[in-house]
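Q: How would the structure tokens look for this protein?
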Amino acid sequence: MAIIRTQGLRRDFGRHAAVAGLDLAVQPGEIFGLVGPDGAGKTTTMRMLTGILPPTAGSAEVAGCDVGRDAERLKEQIGYMSQRFGLYPDLTVAENLDFYADIYSVPARGRAERTEQLLGFSNLTPFRQRLAGNLSGGMKQKLGLACALIHTPRVLFLDEPTNGVDPVSRRDFWRILYQLLREGVTIFVSTAYLDEAERCNRLALLHEGRLIALGTPDEIKALMPGDLLELRTAEPRRAAALLRAQLPDASVGLFGDRVHVTRRAGLRPALSTPHPESTASLGARIRDALAAGGIEVASLRPIEPSLEDVFVAAIGQPPTVP
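A: Here is the predicted structure in token form.
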């Protein structure tokens, strides 16, 4: 039975639909990722699921609580770490944990043991007396996570938790999330980092408040509309611009010194849907267009798509990485 379920979930701000008819079902004990470009509706969805923002229409249940009617009871079941989690810089690490324990009415009996467990869990024990304002960005994120876990929630909501954090700290943070998963915590995370999205059990891709794909990372990558071709050339930027102009029915993405090209057809509604153009035909059109523009092709070959390729094919842009 799903621990998070939404049906037709919608939130309007004036005439703008930030989230438009979202249907999701998240199973207990999985890491579920919400991915999309800026303005896709990720934070709005998160705020509705945590009972902070009432839906305009539709319904949502989290851990058996209706997010509209049972907001207070919901808080006992969830942990929520927003993009700007409210640590108090003039309190120490240990004092921040104690403060959040008071907020969540954690009983005095067992509180010290829980605090020590979380300090060890997040590798913050040596820094327990350090002011939160003096912590590094990665350490602040780990302290924020520990504070969100002080009351032992069943579901953990994380809104872009590694935004602006260095790669090593991001890796450490995800290692902690996997430990939580083994303890049975369900994790609902939004991220703009597609390498992090690959770590999730399942993903929902959002664009302009609408769900455009749902499934495992491999299932979503399989929705690409046909084969993906990787072009290598000494002039990748000029090649990409030329192909966008000459092949209006193709999706063209620039990835460093490589250009990725596939047919622009949106995501396939079914994995068995045939592609209307062969790889050889598309490759020939690419070579002809580049030859006409005086651009030499170093190599052109089919490759497996990444999640970023899926975004480029579906909406013309990848998520904006901070």
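The first strand starts at residue 4 and ends at 13.

The radius of gyration is 23 Å.

Upvote if useful.
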